[in-house]
């Protein structure tokens, strides 16, 4: 009886180790909606940033299409309230774009993608991270793992980078930059400062920190359209993003006109909630019900950075380069 109990306990411990261990990254060679093999190197994966609650940040890593062993590596964070970094990858600076055309929602189809020849990945490797926990495909096994704030999320990003570079030592010699748009401007200087402190303390791995803060095109030449997200905010819809009109998902949006810039968010919602898309990206089954672009008020978050000026001052006084600008809609 005692041996049987010991055997069962050992089995449970091994099961816990297997479940909680870091999963191998996924090499993505094709995606639904894109014709043929991807013409660039795309890796996705999870990094555990909170062992106690089982919190994992999801990332997309696209190697430079130039010289990935010499070109800089850029960590990119999307702004907003828990907005998915997929927005940056597919709407702003990544090598893929949605084909802007009417989508009829026919069974078995997803919005089409095409190659974007002017991506930032032409000159840099970009590490797109869904942060904080709960943004995009990042998740926590315990509800308390979602209860984070600006400081704790920044520290989790530092943990993410330490683990990611430990698993990707070939990129340690590349110049490294931290960047983000809009609300991510609160995280960027703290992450940069924490990296610089580790460098000064001689901690490993040594990240080759060089610059960069908030690079984002305000898109002033686009047609003026209402901002699309189904959570109402005063007289506008602002916050979460879209959902199919079938009612099967939780947040059905109005379908925007094709010539509105917000139409790409509609296409992204359909694409990211497709089962084949998730399978190709290596999304853990059961980790995330519905992908939404932004979680605005439905998950706890503490706003505990009143000003990021001191972090900017700490970084720039050490000789690190920075670009800061203010964006107004």
UniProtKB/TrEMBL annotation:
Single GO term (MF): acyltransferase activity, transferring groups other than amino-acyl groups
GO biological process, one term: secondary metabolic process
Entry keyword annotation includes Coiled coil: no
UniProt keyword Signal, yes or no: yes
UniProt-listed Pfam families: Peptidase_S10
Signal peptide location: 1-23
The entry's keywords: Signal
UniProt-listed Gene3D superfamilies: alpha/beta hydrolase
Coiled coil regions in record: none
Protein family membership: Belongs to the peptidase S10 family.
UniProt-recorded name of the protein: Serine carboxypeptidase-like 19
